[in-house]
Amino acid sequence: MTLHHAPIDIRTLNDESGRREAFALFRQALLGIGDFGRTSPEAEARYLAEGNPLGGFEGDSLRGVVNGYGSSIVLPGGGSVRHLSVTHVGVAPDATRRGIARRLIVEQLKRARMQGYAVAGLRASDARIYGRYGYGVASWSVQHELDLGRTALAIPIPRETLRIVDARDSFPLFRAIADADQTPRPATLARWDGWWAIQQFRTVHGATPHHAVVVGPEGGERGYLRFHVETADNWFTSSRRSVIVDDLVAHDDQAWRTLIGHLFTQDILHRVVFPSRPVDDPLPFLLGNPRAVEISNHRDESWIRPLDLEALLAARRYGGTRQVAIAVEDNLFAENTGTWSVGPDGAKRSHERPEAHIAISELATLIFGAQPASLLAAASRIRTASTNVADELTQIFATSRSPHSGISF
User: CB neighbours of 32 closer than 8 A, spacing ≥ 6?
Assistant: First the structure.
């Protein structure tokens, strides 16, 4: 017997009750998200306030949701563009496999472009889903596990500029430091109020103690480190006392070295876990024994969907020795499709014969410098007229630091 369902009506959820209903459906769909609104309705309200949720309704029944938070993202060269941080994508367990998520995601992307966002971005629970919507991997992350007992710092690091602060009450300071970073990596996101709200909630209500330290004089701080104790049966007698780094922001290399050095002064610690670090993080070179840091869990981090390609290309800086004409294919936004000339003179539309053909998802990977064009060409993810063209595109889109955001949402 064929079941007939009412048409899905997509609506904006503007009021607080609608936002809460959407978040509740998302938690139900993902199964592993707790109802922290029961513990702190105020924190949940602050967390949801800035969101722009869309609901897919069957009559008066909410069947699917997608949400997004306004932000900005850094490009190679230091420029930034408007970024919609996509999250809370979920469908009611009894309404899956009916195309509801697809309709919501596509509608969200169309509205975001109309609202002036240059890109949309997300963290993918499943890496097989979002490429079909034009998202591409724009940054990667790795986990570092540092065994403090197996190494010392390779160079002495001064401690005079360090200051221990209250991890629970210092969020205005943390936010000011993060916002003041003048040289962020590509793919760094401006953090919105709701993101800070959930970080503060987790710190205040965490099951284990949280700690924090800042570097720099008062009023001139240049970085901070937040971390919490890993659960142990008996912390005092454990031979594997560990902490998990929640957030690390450093405006310069000296600030980074000083914050890492602080961990070595904590004699009670055996191990430090950094869950998300850039693939070119220099930590091993800071150690007398580089084998004391185990690097694992290499995974996709930022997934980016270009919306306004003209604005996105214009905001980036390029290298290389000449302009290359690339044909871009975008099956959702005709405005992005066409031939573009990119190179040391910038990026603009072109009527030249293209030397490379690139889908919009792979172009996102190139723009942020997540992978070189030569690698994508070798895997047939982009098509080039010759190896020389792929090598030239590698130089054009090269970046001195690997893209990395370091935050989830």
Answer: none
Q: Which class for 100: exposed (0-12), middle (13-18), buried (19 or more C-beta within 10 A)?
A: buried
Which is it for the CA torsion 336, 342, 348, 351, positive or negative? Answer: negative
Residues 164 and 83: their CA atoms lie apart, in Å, by 33
pLDDT for 5 beyond 90: no
The token pair at 131 is: 């490429």
Mean pLDDT, rounded, for 51-73? 97
Q: 394 near 365, Cβ under 8 Å?
A: no
Query: Cα separation of 117 and 84, whole Å?
Result: 7
**Please, what is the average pLDDT of the chain?**
96
Q: b/e per residue, 322-355, with b = 16+ CB within 10 A? A: ebbbbbbebebbeebebbbbbbeeebeebeeebb
Torsion of CA 386, 390, 393, 397, to 10 degrees: 170
Q: What is the pLDDT of residues 276-319, one digit of tens each?
A: 999 999 999 999 999 999 999 999 999 999 999 999 999 999 99
pLDDT tens digits for range 19-30:
999 999 999 999
Q: Which residue has the tokens 């999250």?
A: 87
Strand partners, 229: 243
Copy the structure tokens of residue 130: 């979002």
pLDDT of residue 1: 47
Q: Among residues 118, 140, 125, which one has the least CA distance to residue 88?
A: 125
The token pair at 273 is 């876990």
